[in-house]
Design goal:
By secondary structure, the protein is of the alpha+beta class. The chain has two domains: 250 residues, no CATH class; 79 residues. The protein is built from nine helices and six strands, in the order H-H-H-H-H-E-E-E-E-E-E-H-H-H-H. Strand 4 and strand 5 form a beta hairpin.
């Protein structure tokens, strides 16, 4: 490794760490403000919140790595251009491609690390985060639930909670096509909902068939509406591959699953694309003695996030092919990189 390589990697790493720290804090802050703040105000256990945020850190790092690398490279190369370091490199016979090689190589390392995180570690951590939050909800229903909350039990039946007060929960209704179950009170215990003092009515073609009173009933739960919605991206690479194969055999459309699968590869790859883009922009602006500045760097970085969100949503909804929904932002920035590299100074 040459002196130039060490210098570029040292400077890029410093900006990368700072940028990644900011991005991770912003992403975790968004989670805290949007979802956990209402729960905190109602008395949720702080330890559960801390555990939940800790499990979300791997995802924040995974999402933030490419963005932080783009931010770091734009800041680094803008500073080097303003300090005439890029001109000095060119005057010394060091080509633009030599600078590009080092930054692309480092981007490849980040892409590999990001792929390892996204394929297995991040989905597992997100699943643990949901489990932590679910245990907190089951332990303190009054603090975390509101009247009108819906659940889904393990059999796919809809469960409604109409009252949440000091005494616990009540006015519980289970609704399905073949039966209705009503109970005046209930409590959560070890992942199940225990009901007391209720009535169960079964139906045959919309007509009541049986009516039975019960003192106690147990409902195993599957989903709780207060939890964040489970996403396809929370599945591991192997789980996504298995679900896609099952959907294909049944002839079921699966754009959300396919988009999430392709994103496992596309999002880490953005680090390599950003190296091409940042170097292209820096040497293009060098020809006219221009500089992005901090505002320009933040704008370009935010634009990637906006582009990524738009392509992802379109891919998940089937408006565009799933592969394009995943790789679209990469292809867009790659096209810009090739343009800037073509017109920039060598």
């Amino acid at each position: 490794m040459t002196t130039l390589d060490r210098y570029l990697l040292r400077e890029a790493s410093a900006y990368l760490v700072a940028g990644l720290l900011v991005v991770v804090l912003l992403l975790l802050g968004g989670v805290l403000f949007e979802m956990l703040a209402p729960l905190l105000s109602r008395g949720v256990d702080l330890i559960a919140v801390a555990q939940y945020l800790a499990y979300r850190v791997p995802e924040a790092i995974y999402r933030g790595l490419p963005i932080a690398y783009l931010f770091a490279l734009l800041l680094l190369l803008s500073r080097m251009a303003e300090d005439s370091e890029l001109k000095a490199l060119l005057a010394s016979g060091i080509s633009r491609e030599r600078v590009l090689f080092t930054l692309v190589w480092f981007g490849g390392v980040l892409a590999f690390l990001g792929f390892l995180l996204g394929a297995e570690a991040v989905p597992r951590a997100n699943q643990e985060a949901r489990a932590v939050l679910q245990r907190a909800i089951l332990a303190r229903p009054r603090a975390l639930l509101e009247p009108g909350t819906f659940f889904t039990d393990a059999y796919g039946r809809l469960v409604y909670v109409g009252r949440v007060d000091e005494a616990g929960i009540g006015e519980i209704r289970l609704l399905s096509k073949d039966e209705v179950l009503a109970a005046e009170r209930g409590r959560f215990e070890h992942g199940v909902l225990e009901l007391g003092e209720g009535v169960r009515v079964t139906y045959d073609q919309s007509r009541p068939r049986t009516v039975a009173l019960f003192e106690k009933a147990t409902l195993p739960l599957r989903e709780i509406a207060a939890l964040p919605r489970a996403l396809a991206s929370d599945l591991t690479l192997g789980e996504l591959r298995e679900k896609i194969a099952r959907a294909r055999r049944r002839g079921i459309p699966h754009p959300a699953l396919a988009t999430a699968y392709y994103r496992k590869f596309a999002e880490p790859l953005a680090s390599v694309v950003f190296a091409l883009f940042a170097v292209g922009v820096a040497f293009w602006m060098l020809g006219g003695s221009r500089s992005l500045g901090l505002v320009g760097v933040v704008t370009v970085t935010f634009f990637y996030y906006a582009t990524w969100s738009v392509f992802r949503i379109m891919g998940e909804q089937g408006a565009i092919p799933p592969w394009l929904g995943a790789f679209g932002p990469d292809l867009f920035y790659l096209a810009l990189a090739l343009v800037f590299l073509g017109v920039g100074r060598r």
